[in-house]
Specification:
The protein has two domains: 7-76, Winged helix-like DNA-binding domain superfamily/Winged helix DNA-binding domain (Arc Repressor Mutant, subunit A), CATH 1.10.10.10; 82-244, GntR ligand-binding domain-like (Four Helix Bundle (Hemerythrin (Met), subunit A), Up-down Bundle). The chain contains twelve helices and two strands. It has helices at 7-26, 37-44, 48-60, 82-94, 100-120, 123-138, 143-160, 164-176, 179-182, 188-206, 210-231, 233-237, and strands at 64-67, 73-76. Strands 1-2 form a two-stranded antiparallel ribbon. α6 runs antiparallel to α7 (143-160). The longest helix has 22 residues, at 210-231. It is elongated and about 60 Å long. It starts with 6 loop residues before the first helix and ends in an 8-residue tail after the last helix. The relative contact order is 0.12. InterPro entries: GntR_C, TF_FadR/GntR_C, Tscrpt_reg_HTH_GntR, WH-like_DNA-bd_sf, WH_DNA-bd_sf. It comes from Streptosporangium fragile.
Length: 245
């Protein structure tokens, strides 16, 4: 049996890179339609199969959506952290890494994010953070609301750091380490403790105090790890698998 050539896959990737470069060059924004297939075939000088493979790859990455039917075709989208979460999950799964890996990564990253956010967060982001803290407090009896606000709180700080890498990393890590998905339960007394920690972090950020913000976040993540290790050690020790994303 002859070896399978990797040339078509390599060509499709190069075409995908050219398509993204042209999106940037033209200044396309979300919702813009890309040229029709016949134009792209001529422009990139490839076969229909290669072009469609390139477009499917970009669709999986969240760069475009493919609208079917007359008047359809590729439409520019805004990528999110979904593809990053999937890629990280697969990498960690093949390393047999436990969920503790993600929790430890947060412990290293989030204090730094909070330190930067104290200096860089906009007034609008601070207001959104206060809204999250208040909403969590008003719905402490509802775990679903608690989990939503817990994620929103950390997302706002990550993006408020002014470092896009941190924003996407936390989106991805929280997508992997979702307590409701992997079996970590939060009784109301624990939710109250998390709310108190969020309030302290918010107050340090509002005061624009980088050191206090970093320290408050470090305490919060450390307390979370201690709680999970004490109550749910088997969950943190469980191997990461793709189905949990």
């Amino acid at each position: 049996m002859a070896p399978v050539s990797l040339r078509p896959q390599k060509t499709a990737m190069l075409v995908a890179q050219r398509i993204v470069a042209d999106i940037n060059r033209r200044g396309n924004t979300v919702g813009d339609r890309l040229p029709p297939e016949r134009v792209m075939l001529d422009e990139y000088d490839v076969g229909r199969g290669t072009l469609r493979e390139s477009l499917r790859f970009l669709e999986l990455q969240g760069v475009i959506s493919l609208k079917p039917g007359p008047g359809g075709g590729p439409v520019v989208q805004q990528p999110d952290a979904t593809s990053l979460a999937t890629t990280l999950t697969l990498l960690l799964q093949f390393e047999n890494a436990p969920f503790r890996t993600v929790a430890e990564a947060r412990a290293g990253l989030e204090p730094m994010m909070a330190q930067l956010a104290a200096e860089r967060m906009s007034d609008e982001q601070l207001a959104a953070l206060k809204s999250s803290v208040d909403t969590m407090h008003a719905h402490l009896g509802d775990q679903e609301v608690f989990l939503d606000e817990n994620k929103r709180f950390h997302d706002i700080i990550a993006h408020g750091s002014g470092n896009a890498m941190f924003g996407y990393l936390i989106d991805a890590l929280l997508g992997i380490l979702d307590g409701s998905a992997i079996g970590i339960d939060y009784p109301e007394v624990r939710r109250s403790a998390v709310h108190k920690a969020h309030l302290q972090i918010y107050q340090a950020l509002e005061a624009r105090d980088p050191a206090a913000s970093s320290a408050a976040m470090a305490r919060h993540i450390t307390e979370y790890l201690r709680y999970a290790e004490r109550k749910f050690p088997e969950v943190l020790a469980a191997p990461i698998v793709w189905s949990n994303v």
